[in-house]
Amino acid sequence: MSNVPTPHIKAQQGEIAKKILMPGDPLRAKFIAENYLTDAVCINDTRNMLGYTGLYKGGSVTVMGSGMGVSSIGIYSYELYNFYKADTIIRIGTAGALVPEVQPRDIIIAQGACHDTNVDRQYDLPGTFAPIADFGLVKRAYELASEKKIKAHVGNVLTGEVYYDASNSLSAWSKMGVLAVEMEAAALYMNAAAAGKKALCICTVTNNPLTGTEDITPEEREKTLTDMITIALEA
User: Fold this and answer.
1) Does residue 107 contact residue 157 with C-beta atoms inside 8 Å?
2) Taking the chain (235 residues) in consecutive chunks of 10 residues, what is each chunk's mean pLDDT?
3) Is residue 7, in this structure, part of any structural domain at all?
4) DSSP output for 131-156
């Protein structure tokens, strides 16, 4: 019995590319399909989680929203890796800086994802698992950023389970040199590890929750997201 379509993805086998870009926002997936891909076809709109497959410089690419948080990206990335035979998923999203050297509009290439979630408990490991990105993807993304004169940082991010955090935990992570906080990378990296596949998270920094630095403007957001999208497509 086939596992596809799933309750969350209506695409048939063969309609999803081996390489997938996953913004959190499904409308960002639509934007990428309309502005970067050729011959793009909508392959999913279940629960309005839009997904498209098209061509970028002659290569097949799928771009699909992940939703917010580890639970949402956990479901979608699991199904894409294990049921739709995806090889590579690159998350593209936004993050809040946790250290002074990382400023709004900078790009973060997450080589590792610390987390305060319970996602790893499902594996019943006799210790603590360190979710990391595929090194080849990290290396390629950093090289692309350097070639394009885009300011990029490589290091750890924090995948947080709570957006409105009442505790002061971010300061503790900052002291450990964690570059930024986001909400999805660790779940993606763990699903990739369990499936023997590749994953990377690239984020654009929009603010600093520790200092209260405001979000970048809509115009700046558009430009820096463009940088991030291009790196992900070419990585």
Assistant:
1) no
2) 92 98 96 97 99 99 98 99 98 96 95 97 95 99 98 98 88 97 99 99 94 76 82 98
3) no
4) -B--HHHHHHHHHHHHHTT--EEEEE
Amino acid letter for position 5: P
Residues 6 or more apart in contact with residue 48 via CB below 8 angstroms: 26
Which helix (DSSP H) or strand (DSSP E) does residue 32 occupy?
helix 26-36
Type of residue numbered 110: A
Q: What is the domain-level CATH number for residue 53? A: 3.40.50.1580
Q: Are 173 and 181 in contact (CB under 8 A)?
A: yes
Predicted local confidence at residue 222, as pLDDT: 61
Measured between alpha carbons, how far is 8 from 21 in angstroms, rounded to an integer?
Answer: 17
Half-sphere exposure of 68 (CA within 13 A, CB side): 8
Model pTM score: 0.96
| Residue-number span of the structural domain to which 216 is assigned | 19-234
Q: How many domains does the chain have?
A: 1
The pLDDT, as a whole number, for residue 216 is 77
- Per-residue model confidence (pLDDT) at position 126: 96
Separation between Cα atoms, residue 99 and residue 95, nearest integer Å: 12
